[in-house]
Design goal:
three-stranded mixed sheet, ten-stranded mixed sheet, 218 residues, 13 strands, 3-oxoacid_CoA-transf_B, alpha/beta, NagB/RpiA_transferase-like
């Protein structure tokens, strides 16, 4: 199965030339390190940056240059810095081609829950609700199961929702899956060394399998 870096590497293959891409907090931030060199992509950070680069090397961090998760980042040549109002204006005007988010749960209908666990401290919803309401292409980077081994790909989300019927694709440590328009997770690829049976056992929602499922190439 994949580690977090492996999930980010696989998602980076979904990024196309000319895209403007928003990276959410958590695993999605790692995607910045794996954008192919032969394509031109602009990464947007919702706190006010276009042209985000990979993470800095140790000793080269600038504490004034951070992403939405408060991690230090780099800026690429030609990058632009602006306030949050302009950043969310871009998001709400659908100027972002692809949004990559983390999630605590995703339902077989494409609902996403990623901002709150009832009873636990939360700073706020952040920009996730704007992103899922405005984005037309959302990929989720997440663990397939929680720490108790319970599936996070469900018939229906049990946690407070961030968005409804918005997720298009999911990449986990076990698999790549499409969320189908009529509902269900269509299994596209298996992580190296992972069997279809393991994915079935880890998926509580409706899993759709059509023929042989190839092993993903990272």
């Amino acid at each position: 199965m994949l580690d977090k870096e492996g999930i980010a590497k696989r998602i980076a293959k979904e990024v196309k030339d000319g895209y403007y891409v928003n990276l959410g907090i958590g695993i999605p931030t790692l995607v910045a390190n794996y954008i192919p060199n032969n394509i031109d992509v602009v990464l947007q950070s919702e706190n006010g940056l276009l042209g985000m680069g990979p993470f800095p090397f140790e000793g080269e961090e600038d504490p004034d240059t951070i992403n939405a998760g408060k991690q230090t980042i780099t800026k690429l040549p030609g990058s632009a810095v602006f306030d949050s109002a302009m950043s969310f204006g871009m998001i709400r005007a659908k100027k972002v081609n692809l949004t990559i988010l983390g999630a605590m749960e995703v339902s077989e209908n494409g609902d996403i829950a990623n901002w709150k666990i009832p009873g636990k401290m939360v700073k706020g919803m952040g920009g996730a609700m704007d992103l899922v309401a405005s984005a037309e292409n959302i990929i989720v980077a997440m663990q397939h199961v929680n720490k108790a081994g319970e599936s996070k790909l469900l018939p229906n989300c049990t946690l407070p929702l961030t968005g409804i019927k918005c997720v298009k694709k999911i990449v986990t440590e076990l698999a790549v899956l499409d969320v189908m328009p009529d509902g269900g997770f269509k299994l596209l690829e298996r992580a190296p060394g992972v069997s279809v049976e393991e994915i079935k056992n880890a998926t509580a929602g409706k899993l759709l399998i059509d023929g042989d499922v190839p092993e993903m190439v990272i």
